Sequence to fold (88 residues):
Amino acid sequence: MKTRFQQAIPSHDPCQEQKIEIGIAVTEREKQEIFRLRYRIYVEEMGRQPVAADHSRKLLADEIDRWAFLLYAKSGSELIATMRVNVG
Fold:
């Protein structure tokens, strides 16, 4: 079974092109999507139990997210990766 990351890697078939969009989350909707992906990966797939996990809403966010840059990668409409960048 392939992981989400392996599924997102473009095929070696040169006739099949797959674009990956990279962006910075600016809307609350984009941020919530990132927090849901974090929860799914860290809590559901990896079995971790971070203190900041909101199990009722299935979100994983903490205080640092308020001032961090939240970057994302999408394959089509599917969010496939995120990264948090803190400056300063």
Q: What stands out?
A: Residues 20-85 form one domain. The mean pLDDT is 90.
